[in-house]
Amino acid sequence: GRFGVKSITEGINTFVRCESLEDVDQVFTNWRASSRVASDNLLWTAILNAHAKMGTSTRTEEIFREMQREEIKPDQVSLAIVASSFARCGQTDRVLEMMRQLNDQGSRP
Asked: For residue range 61-72, what is the model confidence (pLDDT) as tens digits?
């Protein structure tokens, strides 16, 4: 592609500032199709962060699960974003559930 991961994540961040999650999702969907970009943890973290900042914990969790299905290993930043998204919505039980599941899968949260 013509644009690198940095350009894509900057675009995502711009749409977040404009509170346009529809545009965020469109950028993510379009660029995820690119094999070079689809596996980049930075891009996945940016999309997780976008939804977490906008308070859409359900979508944040969906993206996190999709990330796992795609075998993209979440880093500590990704995990912290998802956990804080749940915590902000008062879903601390979901944080503990997610940590248990990761532990059961052999990941260290």
From this structure: 898 888 888 888
